[in-house]
User: Fold FSD2 protein from Sterrhoptilus dennistouni.
Amino acid sequence: RLEEFLKKEVDLELSTLPDFEERVIDVSEVEQLMNSINAIPAPCAPMINPQAPNAATGTSLRVCWGLFSDDTVECYQLCYKPVSNERHSDEQAEHTLKVKETYCTITDLLPNTQYEFWVSALNASGISPPSERAVYVTAPSPPTIKNKKIRSCENAALVCWESRDVNPVDSYTVEL
Assistant:
């Protein structure tokens, strides 16, 4: 029977044209719902830690921070600037670093200088609000001993030095 059917010529022309309605289907609500299911929320603001002991040298600072929640974070944006009483100073320029960890060591800083730091967390959904700002201080540069003013006797020694720091130093430790 199949052989007989295939030998016949079949007229595939339709007698009437199909009447299709043009319908525009709005899938924006479904798309939004699907995106909200797969999307992760933007992270919460990180918490910057206060300066730890021994976290500074004359030219570097180690800054640490953390998160309160289990947010998904791709990287952090660490911002800092020197603290100055002058309002419009070239040294007031803000610096921004992208960091993968929850800590960073910043180098090439000025000795005995205060720096203000804040950090934000980033993921695919966006950026968090910035953390509170924290002030860190670099260590003072070592003083210069005035060799020509050194005096000594059997039971005493007089040693004079001068500081190269712009900001005043709180105290000095002399080791013998």
The CA atoms of residues 54 and 62 lie 9 Å apart. The chain has a mean pLDDT of 85.
